[in-house]
Specification:
Keywords: Membrane, Transmembrane, Transmembrane helix. The protein is an all-alpha fold and about 260 residues long. It contains ten helices and no strands. It folds into two domains: about 120 residues, no CATH class; about 140 residues, no CATH class. It is flat, with a radius of gyration of 20 Å.
């Protein structure tokens, strides 16, 4: 049940931070004195509270403890985040690491949390397989959406060397699509397809030109591409690791080891 609780907690966190949080809200809760940031922080906590209530409805002592611990720690971490110093990548990773440590600690401390949810009390087959679905969606958000923030923070110091021209936010869209494809390829047991994806992107992105400016642009694209691919591969295999501890949902194409109770 640890894996089931972890899948639900992770999905609630990832959806709250990377799907249902706008850029405007993120900026408002991270800039200025705490009193000015409180309304945005409160709205953000409200989103997380709703997600927890929907994904992990456990109206008992364990559920109440998890609910309060998640929201209180999330508020505290987000309130203190502006005090962190360092590059954008270091601040981002430190913030997320703190959230994930709380989530993992709760899943380990309250291993029967999922068993006490209203989902399990329905005694339906759906409750058995919901954590597997949660893990798949969480893995997709981690790979595609959160990956965009990680790569963006990594590339921020190199932004002045970014290639000029092209479609607005075209590079971001390409990154989202390539990470999504890598996630699907690995989960369907076709990791060799990543090589063809790298070759196709290389052919389409690079021209036979010289000069220092063009070389810098090429290096910028190569660094971003390798970072994006590396992140997607790592997250896809982490997802497979979590899925290996959950009941299979009956999709033969998924390269997931058989679950052993």
């Amino acid at each position: 049940m640890i894996a089931a609780s972890l899948a639900a907690l992770l999905l609630a966190h990832l959806l709250g931070d990377f799907v249902f949080q706008s850029t405007k809200m993120a900026e408002k809760k991270a800039s200025g004195p705490l009193a000015r940031r409180l309304p945005a922080l409160a709205r953000h906590m409200g989103v997380h509270a709703l997600l927890l209530a929907l994904l992990l409805p456990a109206p008992d002592a364990q559920g109440a403890l998890a609910f309060v611990a998640i929201l209180a720690s999330h508020f505290l971490i987000d309130a203190l985040k502006p005090r962190l110093r360092g590059t954008a990548l270091r601040v981002f990773l430190a913030d997320q690491a703190a959230h994930w440590l709380v989530i993992c600690a709760l899943a380990l401390t309250l291993p029967d949390l999922w068993a006490h949810t209203l989902w399990m009390k329905t005694q339906s087959g759906l409750a058995t397989y919901l954590p597997t679905v949660f893990a798949l969606v969480a893995g997709a958000v981690l790979t595609v959406r959160m990956g965009g923030f990680v790569i963006g923070a990594l590339m921020q110091p190199l932004a002045e060397r970014a290639p000029q021209g092209g479609l607005p936010k075209g590079g971001q869209l390409i990154g989202l699509l390539e990470r999504a494809l890598i996630f699907v390829l690995i989960l369907t047991g076709q990791p060799q397809g990543i090589g063809f994806l790298i070759a196709a992107k290389s052919i389409l992105r690079f021209e036979a030109k010289g000069g220092p400016d063009h070389n810098a642009a090429n290096e910028y694209v190569i660094i971003g591409t390798l970072a994006s691919f590396g992140w997607a591969i790592a997250c896809a295999y982490l997802t497979l690791g979590l899925l290996a501890h959950l009941p299979p949902i009956g999709i033969p194409a998924l390269g997931i080891p058989q679950h052993s109770p």
